[in-house]
Amino acid sequence: MNNYKKNTEPLEFLLSKYKFDIEKIETISSGLKYSAVLLKNGNIGVCANLGCKVNTDKNIYLKYDLKNFSHRIVLNAYLNSLLNYSNDFQNSADIFDVVDFRKYKQIVMLGFFKPILKKFDHAGIPIKIFDLSKKDIALTPLSEQKPILKSADAIILTSTSIFNLSFINSIDSTNNNCEIFLLGPSSIMTKEMFNYKNIKMIFGSTFEKFDHRILKIINNDGGTKDFLKLGKKCILKKNEK
């Protein structure tokens, strides 16, 4: 589908179809936690930084480097801004309210979403959590990740896995009956993502066009809890047209 080749990582695949055009970009904003791309048509896309410093001069991306994480963050935010407005999203709800996690036997979270963990704990549903960059008593040692992924039947996968190149390895480690839910404001909301193994739903965000409050928050080192309240939570399901 769409010239998709197995194991082509998402940014490379999507950029082969939706060309990166700096002439569409009005401005790039970046802080400690997030970067954002504002297009000239008003669309806004974001991507988490995970500690990477991002150059906000759009002209340096005329020759982008897919091996450079800072470049990948901008490219992810660009695709987010370009594609997240292409669907008429009917749903707006938290993942825990949409997915019945009680039906799964082995649930894994790749990327630590504390608010979601609280909901699992409150509901008494066990979940294993892995995170490459954080330390917390709730996390399972990374040495146990591979065998647990193989037996998992549900995975909540952070969409930052796309820019940091852990996406393919993560999905390839799952069995064929696993259902994967991509989550986070970095999500690229496009049906092409369902070409990838086991991706069931994508949970992301959109913002009002030309909402400069988002850029200001990000420039001032704000994070998810600061700017998401200004956006709309969106859900894209595999079989939606």
Q: Can you describe what's shown?
A:
The structure is a single chain. The mean pLDDT is 92. This protein is α/β, with parallel strands linked by helices. The chain is built from nine helices and nine strands. The protein has a domain at 95-205 and 233-237: Rossmann fold, CATH 3.40.50. It has helices spanning 10-17, 69-83, 95-98, 114-123, 145-151, 160-163, 167-172, 212-219, 224-227; strands at 25-30, 34-39, 44-48, 107-110, 128-130, 154-158, 179-183, 199-207, 231-237. The protein is globular and about 50 Å long.
* CATH topology (fold) name of the domain at 95-205 and 233-237: Rossmann fold
Counting DSSP H or I runs of 4 or more residues, the number of helices is 9
Strand content: 15-25%
> How many strands?
9
Largest beta-sheet details: 6 strands, mixed
Please report the first level of CATH classification, the CATH class of the domain at 95-205 and 233-237: Alpha Beta
State the shape. globular
Q: Average pLDDT value?
A: 92
The CATH architecture category of the domain at 95-205 and 233-237 equals 3-Layer(aba) Sandwich
The end-to-end span amounts to 15 Å
Main-sheet strand order equals 5-4-6-7-8-9
Strands, helices and their partners?
Elements: H1 10-17, E1 25-30, E2 34-39, E3 44-48, H2 69-83, H3 95-98, E4 107-110, H4 114-123, E5 128-130, H5 145-151, E6 154-158, H6 160-163, H7 167-172, E7 179-183, E8 199-207, H8 212-219, H9 224-227, E9 231-237
Parallel strand pairs: 4-5, 4-6, 6-7, 7-8
Antiparallel strand pairs: 1-2, 2-3, 8-9
